[in-house]
Amino acid sequence: GIVDGIFTRMGAADNIYKGRSTFMEELTDTAEIIRRASPQSLVILDELGRGTSTHDGIAIAYATLEYFIRDVKSLTLFVTHYPPVCELEKCYPEQVGNYHMGFLVNEDESKQDSGKGLNVLPTYGRHTV
Fold first, then answer.
1. Residues near 96 by Cβ (< 8 Å), separated by ≥ 6?
2. d(Cα 44, Cα 29) in Å, to the nearest integer?
3. To bridge 96 with a disulfide, which of 40, 85, 92, 110 should be the other Cys (CB 3.0-4.6 Å)?
4. Which residues are in the DNA mismatch repair proteins mutS family domain (predicted)?
5. Domains, in order of start, for the chain
């Protein structure tokens, strides 16, 4: 196949059944991805480090992404709002590219009311509150 595995870490939720905080869940999932990913893998990490302080989050995100760049060498989509992490493009210009996503809001559609005081936004055939 094209890739030998697809690994994702998205969302932010604790695991009360296992007694794990959001931060612990992030680290546990990320550690498992680090153990299993190969150069032929697709890795998607969304906002890694958000479950802790900004300073610690930046350090975790930066170190994790740099590990994937230098050691794992997988195709990695790393979503972040931490500007220092984006600086890795300067250190690894052949391996890293920064991209930004934007969107336009149709004011008429965004003001649809669900009847319960919540705004309902139609997205890809699903209504998201």
1. 69, 88, 89
2. 12
3. 92
4. 41-57
5. 6-99 (3.40.50.300)
